[in-house]
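User: Assemble these into one structure.

Assistant: Restating your components, then the assembled model:
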Amino acid sequence: MQMLMFLIPISLALGGLGLAAFFWALRSEQFDDPQGDGARILTDDWDSRPKP
Amino acid sequence: MAASAPISACPACDAAPLARETASRAIGDKLILSLPTIHCAACISAVERGLAGLPGLKDARVNLTLKRVTLTTAPGFPATDAITRLADIGYEAHELDPGQLTQTAAARTGRDLLMRLGVAGFAMMNVMLLSVAVWSGAEAATRDMFHWISAAIALPTIAFSAQPFFRNAWRALSVRRLNMDVPISLAILLAGAMSLWEVAHSGHHAYFDAALSLTFFLLAGRYLDHRSRAVARSAAQELAALDVPRALRVRHGKAEEVAVDTLTPGDIVRVRPGGRVPVDGIIRKGQSEIDRALLTGESLPVFAAPGQIVAAGEVNLTGPLEVEVTAAGNDSSLHRMAELVAIAETRRNRYTSLADRAARIYAPGVHLLALFAFLGWITATGDLRLALNIAVAVLIITCPCALGLAVPAVTTAATGRLFKRGLLVKNATALERLAEVDTVVFDKTGTLTMGLPRLREDPVHDTGFAVALGLAQGSAHPLAKALLQAAEGTTPAQIEQLAEVPGHGVQGQWQGQTVRLGRAEWVGATAGNDTAVWLQIGDQPPRAFTFTDSLRPGAAELVAALREQGKSVHLLSGDAPGPVGALARELGISEWRAAILPAEKAAFVEALAAQNNRVLMVGDGLNDTAALAAAHVSVAPASALDAARVASDIVLLGRDLAPLSGALVTARKATARIRENFAIAAAYNAVAIPIALAGFATPLMAALAMSLSSICVSMNALRLR
């Protein structure tokens, strides 16, 4: 049972990390064009070097 | 153009457009172009790569979901550069009104909903994890600890994530009405409070996971709803942005561009050939021909001379006109028509959607059931805690997870599919109304036809035709252009002293003779029923070239498909009987009426409705707007006049009419899916309610039933093809 003292906070913290990542993605407008993002992986425009 | 417009003497009138311009500058130098034709990955890279080299352009980013591109530019970058570049690589582009603050507001609410959804999802999964431990047999102190942790996660989450429901419920209650959000809020709040109390008294059952999954699933429905509406709204705004309300005002011999709403009666406005008359007025100077097709449906242009009255929305064809304003802005006939439409709209808004009808039965039913359970158990056992527990269980179990998803899941799938086919559904209940249609009424000019003339018969390629072509080169009149398009092999004759006589036609010298191409009266002929131009060479008798309106692509297929589906099809037009009859015969429409007035159109539609017909009206002109608003559901092509598009529920984005017949099928299927979803929800309730009433419900059962019914409903919605 002692284990739970560590495991529950750790699982919550990890979940919270995921939530924070979601917030970041949302704030940086990554959910504004779901269709376009799905299509963009098919293009090879910036495969060799990143977009300036 | 906009930047060089001088500030007028009336600051209040200018305030709105000025605020709009300032707003666009505040966002930075961003320019948004609408790209109605993009649809795939190749389009994205073609557009972005095509724009990349433009001087002054820093970045271009395509949004495929909203079909637009956002340009980050250096100050003073002209939008026309980007538009011409895009046209060169084959993409149609329109500049969007930069002051679309509502657009960013919609994006903000979307992001806000998504944020609440994310938090609810996170909390739901964690609490569910802890709940599983309790369900699988955690006892005494361990169970209490898990419950307390659950409470610590669930209560703040509910306070944050369920806010949209609380707000809506409060709004409804404060005007003494019940909506779907009232039982939802009650269930969430009571479940939270009840569980907290149970946990404090180390009870066995806590419904934190149920309250959270309720919040999560319902928020998902809310978000879907918001998204499909946001896409429709932004596309509708794009259409509105196509009409720029500006006019050329003449003062002291100089013309300046001003916003239409700054004009006052008595001002003189210049209307260039090819331009739309922005105001109601009287012609003071100039001669021309006027195309009234959008207002009356007449396909023949009308001669215009000083003293004649013109109305806003008419198109000036050949010569420049100076018009004295008699009514502008809010007083003009265009605006009055828009008001008529607004009145008709409120009448239509009385249509109650399936979801509303379900909510109307459902909301009081649930409250009564919970109350009944509470009273029944308290009289039977006298145990307040047990009775409250059961009442809350009833509220949670009957809570409309499935019901909340039933409609948005289907409409999102259906409107998304229709949008891909080029149909923009503007109104939330339009799909349901479209599914009920049994009668279709069409307008002619601009709807079934393109409103573009085409030579009726293949011309005889003789010298006369060559002379006509030579004369046609001197004019921008639509009929002259149509004549030139039919030229094929014939070389236009050399005409000297070519001159356009505004309002009449073109005149010139050919081999020493005076030649004329123009209106019948001008060359001394009598006008027939058909659209025609007349050619006169010297003293020879005049000769006519007759035109028909070219059929809109897909029109014939649409009419055939509608008749196959068993709909009755009508054709109503303000045009002369000749062309209307010819078109009706060509398409096989037996019920047609010509030369009818706008009010008669609306009356005709209302008469059909009075005979219990559900009418779909398809039209584009100002003369159709009243009928569009009066119909059960209405469709306008993108080329239609503003007022007509506003009055209609669905806008056809492409030129092709054919997708409309598919839309009727999709709408019927979507409504069937919605009904099926209601049936699924009802079946689930029929099983769950007795169990809850009998007091056998556990949190595990509630969680299982809720997830199962929500997944069933969403899957059923996805079956829509």
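The radius of gyration of chain B is 32 Å.
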